Amino acid sequence: MKKTLSTLAVLSALAASTSALAANEVNVYSYRQPYLIEPMLKDFEKQTGIKVNVIFADKGLEERVKQEGELSPADVLLTVDISRVMKIVKAGVSQPIQSKVLEKNIPAQFRDSNGDWYGLTTRARAIYTSKDRVGKLPAGFDYLDLAKPEYKGKVCVRSGKNSYNVSLFAAMIAHYGEEATRDFIKGLKANLAQKPQGGDRDQVKAIKEGICDYALGNSYYYGKMLDDEKQKAWAEAAIINFPTGKFGTHVNISAVAVAKHSPNKANAVKLIEFLSDDKAQSLYAELNHEYPVKQGVKPSKLVQGWGSFSADAIKLEEIAKNYDKALKLVDEVKFDE
Questions:
Q1: Could you tell me what percent of the chain has a pLDDT over 90?
Q2: How many domains does the chain have?
Q3: Distances (CA, A) of 70 to 15, 88, 260
Q4: What is the predicted pLDDT for the residue at 16?
Q5: Helix, strand, coil distribution of the chain in percent, nearest 5
Q6: Residue 24 — left, alpha, or beta (φ > 0 → left; ψ -120 to 50 → alpha)?
Q7: How confident is the model at residue 34, as a pLDDT?
């Protein structure tokens, strides 16, 4: 099932042949590690008889598909974060699809209005706090509170240019406007305990080490740290909190699109519909410590144990429109310097 980008030349050659075009298969180009999606894909193979080929890339996926052009074997493009989804769309390497199954299973908030992409799972942009020095945040605590003077020298955040943070800032622009968001980014920078560095897990590690008391991080990292013997102590030293301010908690997605020149479009749609249904939704979310997009499907017991939250109701495609504006604000404030 699994392939890497080194096999793309072979697949491109196969795609040019009539036999390949007629094959009962589907080719998935994925930004997600293969082991995170293979259980669902194996189940899909078993139920449909359609062979799934997975090609993993850690960067440059849309550029690769664009270079391959009409001979690209890509059918399904699997990615994370609304910013990466929009890169795929803007690169012109995807095509819209219409499906009553997808419209039923995936709320409008988590899919493109034209059918260019569909969300499969969500993750929350949470606030981690020191279990010993802070404890659980009070009701009503908002992202904006992290920019207040009383938190000076107590906050840790990864690079402001990271897509997870830029997406949050883009959501804030949608709710508060550019000026208020700029003020927040400036205030957040003023409260940093250290220069932005590392990833989300490193911020929780910094809490464990006493460098800071508060940190921004995606929710699924809490589960990943608890699964890792070396990082478990970091997670156990922190509490995961979900903001309850004006717009609740910012959420992002893992998402999927159909490639523009998909040689197996019907199979691609079948796979996406399969991934949006109950069983795959439950398993996919559990493996990644994320939240299913389909209503009525519960997250894992571990994730349920973190508590419920009110997700921002704004459509992600509206947030995506503010992405460049948010990135510009990060540069103007010189957040990472």
A1: 90
A2: 2
A3: 9, 16, 8
A4: 41
A5: 45, 20, 35
A6: beta
A7: 81
Q: Within this chain, do residues 324 and 218 fall inside the same structural domain, yes or no? A: yes
- Both 170 and 229 in one domain: the answer is yes
Q: 125 - beta bridge partners?
A: 218
d(CA 180, CA 184) in angstroms, rounded, equals 6
Mean pLDDT of the chain: 93
CATH of the domain at 25: 3.40.190.10
Cα separation, 148 vs 279, whole angstroms: 44
Q: Measured between alpha carbons, how far is 76 from 323 in angstroms, rounded to an integer?
A: 24
- Pairing of the two strands 76-80 and 118-130: unpaired
Q: What angle do CA 287, 249, 114 make, to 5 degrees?
A: 75
Any idea what DSSP says for residue 264? T
For residue 23, name the pLDDT band (cuts at 50, 70, 90): confident
**Domain shared by 300 and 180, yes or no:** no
User: Beta-carbon neighbour count of residue 109 at 10 Å?
Assistant: 18
Dist. CA 253–CA 264, nearest whole Å: 25
Whether residues 236 and 150 fall in one domain: yes
Query: Is there a single domain that holds both residue 231 and residue 322?
Result: yes
Name the 3-class secondary structure at 81: coil
Within this chain, do residues 243 and 257 fall inside the same structural domain, yes or no? no
Question: Could you tell me if 323 and 187 lie in one domain?
Answer: yes
pLDDT band for 103, please (50, 70, 90 cuts): very high
Q: Which residues of 20-39 are buried (b: 16+ CB within 10 A; e: fewer)?
A: beebebbbbbbbbebeebee
Residue type (1 letter), 154: K
pLDDT of residue 33: 83
Tokens 């509206």, located at residue: 318
CA distance 161 to 252: 16
Tell which residue, 74, 61, 69, 45, has the closest CA to residue 270: 45
Residue-range definition of the domain harbouring residue 219: 124-250+310-333
pLDDT for residue 3: 52
